[in-house]
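General statements about sequence and structure are easier to judge against a single worked case. For one protein, we set the task of working out the structure tokens from the amino acid sequence alone. The sequence in question and its structure tokens are set out directly beneath this paragraph.
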Amino acid sequence: MAEACEFPAALLPAHGRRVEQFFEPGEEVLVARDGQEVAWLVEALTAERARGIGAAARRRALAEHTYQQRAELWRQVTQ
């Protein structure tokens, strides 16, 4: 999912994928439990807010979810 943060738009992943462990819902990502919530979120979403959420997600991804950081964590765990 971090790779998708390259694009300046709000992400709306499927509920239950534990995205809350990596991104702040409502600030860095939008999360919906069902189709009705997806429709409500999309209808309420402005272009400006979508760009803001996308930018926040990108900042978080670059700060905490790069391949280099994952490789370092893997190295630490496996030593």
In short: The chain is about 50% helix and 0% strand. Residues 47-64 form the longest helix (18 residues). The radius of gyration is 14 Å.
